[in-house]
């Protein structure tokens, strides 16, 4: 039986891969989520970046407040660590109401969701994390609740079972997903507002870092902030994590000041390179360039070469390498781009090398 306060929020990284032992992983484990709580912006005004989504959301919320009614249901989509949970909390705070938290995986049966829904109070915000992982029967119940503010509660079993309609107070559902594409259209359509979060610019991450340093009570030099931001893969969660590691270094091995030298030294200890690649990322790139002459090479072969499971290489290392234009996926396998060779400081072969050779 699922309960709903704080259930299942921290049990998986948003993308379903649990790789928080990597310092550049986008997901987080429970322990880290606790550390993050202190750094979470509480109001829309404090939420850095995502100007478009912030502006749109602010309109939705202000209009609802002015009308004295619950706003439309909100869907937040985007990669892990970009602020979906944070925004859900902000929505409740801005509306001056409380937030109920549950998640797709925490709801096993439609009855679990019915229990959550029927305990909602007027105007509350129901946050459903990883909403793409809701089971089908629960999903159907949710359609009805979102559209008609009503659920059918089934009592009894077999032939004697009957459905008792139960009306719900108006509430706002906020769904979060890292995989908007997996949401069935009827569910997607029931959200009046969808905000898609994108990776942050270096500028925005520098602002996130400055804010976090203030909250941690440490002073962070502007050029150190820029250095950390550049290695954070466009993700505030990673930026805050690297900031904590730089703070450790400054305290233990430095003189306490968080300057450029401290940032560089700390990130070298943690093997995060200037564009945010870690050891696994670089191992994949290096193998691709030096062992396979830039490819194309099959994923499985590449994975064996770096001593990893194919799935790990595909889900943990590849997305960022592809996003950064360092490797390409072709029907014949993975290939290194000229940027990969350049990043490793290597010269691409002239003959029979990569698909990208002139
Ligand atoms: N716009 C922002 N401004 C400042 N800090 C932010 C912002 N977005 C995210 N953060 C920080 O990054 C951390 C991670 O954000 P959050 O938990 O909201 O991500 P998420 O999108 O829900 O990730 P997941 O998909 O893993 O659940 C938060 O603790 C918060 O401190
Ligand atoms: Mg989240």
- Sum up the overall morphology in one term: globular
Largest sheet: 5 strands, parallel
Cα distance spanning the termini: 61 Å
Q: Tell me which CATH architecture of the largest domain applies here.
A: 3-Layer(aba) Sandwich
Please estimate the helix content: 40-55%
**In the CATH hierarchy, what is the superfamily of the largest domain?**
P-loop containing nucleotide triphosphate hydrolases
- Work out the number of β strands: 9
CATH fold-level assignment of the largest domain: Rossmann fold
Oligomer: single chain
Mean pLDDT equals 90
* Element order: H for helix, E for strand: HHEHEHEHEEEHEHHHHHHHEEH
Report strand order across the widest sheet.
2-3-6-1-7
> How many discrete structural domains?
3
Provide the β-strand percentage band.
5-15%
Structural class: alpha/beta
Radius of gyration: 23 Å
Low-pLDDT runs of 5+ residues are 1-20
Mind explaining what this structure looks like?
The chain is α/β, with parallel strands linked by helices and 358 residues long. The protein folds into three domains: 30-196, 3-Layer(aba) Sandwich (Rossmann fold); 202-269, Helicase, Ruva Protein, domain 3, CATH 1.10.8; 279-344, Arc Repressor Mutant, subunit A (Orthogonal Bundle), CATH 1.10.10. Helix content is 44%, strand content 12%. It is built from 14 helices and nine strands. It has helices at residues 30-37, 51-67, 84-95, 110-118, 136-148, 185-189, 202-216, 222-230, 236-252, 260-269, 279-291, 299-305, 310-323, 338-344, and strands spanning 74-77, 99-103, 125-129, 150-155, 162-167, 172-177, 193-196, 327-330, 333-336. The strands form three sheets. Strands 2-3-6-1-7 form a five-stranded parallel β-sheet, covered by helices on one side. Strands 4-5 form a two-stranded antiparallel sheet. Helix 4 links the parallel strand 2 (99-103) and strand 3 (125-129). The longest helix has 17 residues, at 51-67. 40% of the residues are buried. Residues 1-20 have low confidence and may be disordered. The chain binds adenosine-5'-triphosphate (ATP) and magnesium ion. Residues 13-14, 27-28, 36, 39-41, 47-50, 80-86, 178, 208, 236-237, 240 line the site of adenosine-5'-triphosphate. Belongs to the RuvB family.
């Amino acid at each position: 039986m699922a309960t709903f306060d704080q259930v299942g929020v921290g049990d998986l990284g948003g993308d379903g891969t649990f790789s928080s032992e990597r310092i550049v992983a986008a997901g987080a484990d429970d322990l880290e989520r606790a550390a993050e709580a202190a750094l979470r912006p509480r109001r829309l005004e404090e939420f850095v970046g995502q100007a478009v989504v912030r502006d749109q959301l602010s309109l939705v919320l202000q209009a609802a407040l002015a009308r004295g009614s619950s706003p439309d249901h909100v869907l937040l989509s985007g990669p892990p660590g970009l602020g979906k949970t944070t925004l859900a909390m902000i929505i409740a705070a801005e509306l001056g109401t409380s937030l109920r938290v549950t998640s797709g995986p925490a709801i096993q049966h439609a009855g679990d969701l019915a229990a959550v829904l029927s305990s909602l109070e007027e105007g509350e915000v129901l946050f459903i994390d990883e909403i793409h992982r809701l089971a089908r029967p629960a999903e159907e119940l949710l359609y009805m609740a979102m559209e008609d503010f009503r659920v059918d509660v089934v009592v009894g079993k077999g032939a004697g079972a009957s459905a008792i309609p139960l009306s719900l107070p108006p509430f706002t559902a906020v769904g979060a997903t890292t995989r908007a594409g997996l949401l069935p259209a009827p569910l997607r359509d029931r959200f009046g507002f969808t905000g898609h979060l994108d990776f942050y610019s270096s500028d925005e991450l520098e602002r996130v870092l400055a804010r976090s340093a203030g909250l941690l009570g440490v002073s962070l030099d502007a050029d150190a902030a820029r250095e950390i931001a550049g290695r954070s893969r466009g993700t505030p969660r990673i930026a805050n994590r690297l900031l904590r590691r730089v703070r450790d270094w400054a305290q233990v091995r430095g003189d306490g000041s968080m300057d450029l030298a401290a940032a560089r030294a700390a990130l070298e200890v943690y093997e995060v390179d200037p564009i945010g690649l870690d050891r696994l990322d670089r191992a994949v790139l290096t193998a691709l360039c030096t062992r396979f002459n830039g490819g194309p090479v099959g994923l499985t072969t590449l994975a064996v070469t770096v001593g990893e499971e194919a799935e790990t290489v595909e889900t943990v290392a590849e997305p960022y390498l592809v996003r950064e234009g360092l490797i390409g996926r072709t029907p014949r396998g993975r290939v290194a781009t000229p940027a990969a060779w350049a990043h490793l400081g290597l010269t691409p072969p002239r003959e029979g090398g990569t698909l990208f050779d002139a």
